[in-house]
Amino acid sequence: MVTLNVTGMTCDGCVRAVERIIKAQDPQANVTIDLGSGRVEAATSAAPAALVEAIEAAGFGAQAA
């Protein structure tokens, strides 16, 4: 389980974008995102650093929680 704090998500479209980014790294990932808190939990085999890098490349802020 990877837990991240993601900033810059302002709508459901942002939530879907972050979910797509994570699933691009691991198509089998099970992703839960709380828009209000910016908390992202993903049951994934992808490395947390790779997820942070991909999310930041898309214009969001991200860090491991």
TrEMBL record:
A GO term, aspect molecular function: metal ion binding
Domain HMA intervals: 1-63
Matching CDD domains: HMA
Domain of life: Bacteria
Keyword set, alphabetical order: Metal-binding
SUPFAM superfamilies: HMA, heavy metal-associated domain
Name of the protein described by the UniProt record: Heavy metal transporter
